Amino acid sequence: MGLSRPHKAGNGVSTRWVFIFCIASFFLGVLVINRFWAIPDPAKIDEEASSVEKHQPGALRPIDNCEKKDASVGAGDILSQVSQTHDVIMTLDKTISSLEMQLAATRAAKVDDEEESPMGTKSGSERLKERQKVFFVMGIITAFSSRKRRESIRETWMPRGEELRKLEREKGIIIRFVIGHSATPGGVLDRAIDAEDEQHKDFLRLNHIEGYHELSSKTQTYFSTAVAKWDADFYIKVDDDVHINLGMVGSTLARHRSKPRVYIGCMKSGPVLAQKGIKYHEPEYWKFGEEGNKYFRHATGQIYIISKDLATYISVNRHILHKYANEDVSLGSWFIGLDVEHIDDRSLCCGTPPDCEWKAQAGNPCAASFDWSCSGICKSVERMEEVHQRCGEGDEAIWHTSF
Question: Tell me: the pLDDT tens digits for 220-253?
Fold first, then answer.
């Protein structure tokens, strides 16, 4: 009876304390949320962003710009790697070419030691070490009976004496009349060439017996001999009835200097002539298919140019390269199956006046001029001076041309 006591839940926590604990937790939670999850003032955000950009320009960029920049950098890296790889390949290619050149020159020098009459006490290897590095070698193919042709060239487009030596020293250009020897070495024909060479010092003598039907062999021997004697970027063969503008030839070759294997000339594809007794008859006509077929594309024989690698190839393989009746066909056949760039340059086969004269007046002098009908300048001894006056680039052009 009487007064009742508050109910205790045995050893449990009093409901009053539970209530107080809940209230305290609520207020503590409110304080924590206000402290860490406070919503920033938009105006304050703008102000802070402006302050950051002011002190650290470029520090903040839109995400899409970053992605574009990353893509650009990636593409740049790829292009850089491709360029570096290309440079390495080109360097390796040139290194291999240089080694092949040394091998070819060594072989040619060895053959000269074994086959030629002794010209002195130096061995082939010693001559190899002394090879002169030049821009190009121009060999003018000539014959015993062509002295007047040679004089017409010396009096027009080919420097003489000290001017010829100066051209070699300052421009790296070698020009020589190319001739072998007669069937009777030491005879009157050879002595006449010896005397002429003593006077002008502008011949390259070959270990070759002269003869019209031996032009393929002469061409092959010329390139092999020139490779052994000079380390040139280009080797040129030209006939002794063709007019040349040396400055234009040099400018043309300078554009192709970085290419390893080039074959330059006026490319043609003439008919294979099976009939005997006519000019340019092809005894091996049957190799070119049915009668009436044409030759493969090759440079016309009046003038053509090959790079160092191709001259090296001829020198190394000259004993197994097949020779056709026509030397220009032979040269073209030697490059079939090789990775060679054929360059058809029509400035190397301009006609004589008025053709080359019009082009010279227009500011585009021809590199070489001749008459197709005569396979050279018709009556070149009488007309070379006229062609030079009307179509020449000027005697000083070569000295003002930079290669």
Answer: 999 999 999 999 999 999 999 999 999 999 999 9
Helical packing angle, 308-317 and 63-115, nearest 10°: 40
Residue 275: strand, helix, or coil: coil
Q: Which pair of tokens denotes residue 165?
A: 């030596």
> CB neighbours of 103 closer than 8 A, spacing ≥ 6?
312, 316
**Peptide bond preceding 354 in cis form (omega within 30 of 0):** yes
Placement of tokens 């030691």 in the chain: 113
Extract the tokens encoding 32: 């924590």
How large is the C-alpha radius of gyration of the chain?
41
Which residue type does 98 have?
A: S
Q: What is the spatial distance between Cα 333 and Cα 274, in angstroms, rounded to a whole number?
A: 18
Note the pTM of the prediction, 2 decimals.
0.73
Nearest to 242 by CA among 150, 307, 175: 150
Helix segments in 340-401, DSSP class H: 355-361, 380-391, 397-400
d(CA 366, CA 393): 8
Q: In this structure, what token pair is assigned to residue 62?
A: 């839109």
Longest dimension (CA), the chain: 168
Going from the C-alpha of 117 to that of each of 57, 125, 372, the distances in angstroms are: 82, 16, 39
